From TrEMBL:
Residues 4-253 form the Endonuclease/exonuclease/phosphatase domain. Residues 241-252 have a biased composition (Basic and acidic residues). PANTHER family: EXODEOXYRIBONUCLEASE III. It comes from Parasphingorhabdus flavimaris. This is Exodeoxyribonuclease III. Its cofactor is Mg(2+). Residues 241-262 are annotated as: Disordered. Its EC number is 3.1.11.2. Pfam families: Exo_endo_phos. GO terms for molecular function: double-stranded DNA 3'-5' DNA exonuclease activity. The keyword Magnesium applies.
Length: 262
């Protein structure tokens, strides 16, 4: 089963690129972030035409997450995180996906807050959101199911996950508190699939539109797939579809994926 994460940066603006990627690579599951549309505007019928069922959690102009599944409708488990009722951001969606053997895999699509400018209220909100995500991850862990927490975490975990430490040292994505929040989940037992597969780093998932980031290959890794033990034991391979970032009117992110032997 191939499970992918893709920050599409506006599903309406990038729909041709998204459909192109889906038809070329045919992932079993695609977790999308930054769909940037209200629920009524989500193009579910376009995905149905190419064999994908969908659930989504939209928001006007900002945020928004979705889960697509090939040849089935994802079974929604949860939307949004508990612990902060006033938080109306559409950043979390969780579902069960049924494998060919009839067993279920838990998948979450995550769009973690950026946190800039740092310091400030947005950074404080980011850290609280990470704490709430960790609490939900612990609940999933307790169910002892194969699980993949996929998404744009807006965290650069290690120095070798960025083209220039100096260029990003003051950014919220690389602050010690952000990294510590991410590391706590790894210490809980979640496996960073790309991190363990590419310990030397230098594998990017994001290139800024500004200053020729793509043309200069000045990127960093902020899109992650965290695996529960039952999923990590079945990890066959993982990677990024880098070539799709260079296409016309592409997202500033590229898809990251894992192949699990289920």
């Amino acid at each position: 089963m191939r499970i992918a994460s893709y920050n599409i940066n506006g599903i309406k603006a990038r729909l041709p690129r998204l459909l192109e990627w889906l038809e070329e690579t045919r992932p079993d599951v695609a977790c999308l972030q930054e769909i940037k549309t209200q629920d009524a505007g989500f193009p579910a019928d376009e995905f149905e035409k190419i064999g994908y069922g969908a659930i989504w959690h939209g928001q006007k102009s900002f945020n928004g997450v979705a889960i697509l599944a090939r040849d089935q409708a994802p079974e929604e488990i949860k939307r949004g995180l508990d612990g902060e009722p006033e938080d109306e951001h559409s950043r979390y969606l969780e579902a069960n996906i049924t494998g060919k053997d009839g067993k279920k895999v838990r998948v979450s699509s995550i769009y973690l807050p950026n946190g800039n400018p740092h310091p400030g209220p947005k950074f404080d909100f980011k850290l609280r959101w990470m704490k709430r995500l960790r609490e939900r991850a612990a609940e999933i862990w307790a169910e002892e199911v194969p699980a993949v927490l996929a998404g744009d975490y807006n965290v650069i975990p290690r120095d070798n996950d960025v083209y220039s430490v100096k260029a990003m040292e003051s950014d919220a994505l690389m602050q010690p508190e952000s990294r510590q929040g991410y590391r706590r989940m790894l210490n809980d037992g979640w496996t960073d699939a790309l991190g363990v597969t590419y310990p030397e780093g230098q594998i990017w998932t994001y290139w800024d539109y500004r200053s020729g980031g793509w043309q200069r290959d000045q990127g960093f890794r902020i899109d992650h797939l965290l695996l529960s033990p039952l999923a990590a034991d079945r990890l066959k391979s993982c990677g990024v579809d880098k070539e799709h970032r260079g296409r016309e009117k592409a997202s500033d992110h590229t898809p990251a994926w894992v192949d699990l032997d289920l």
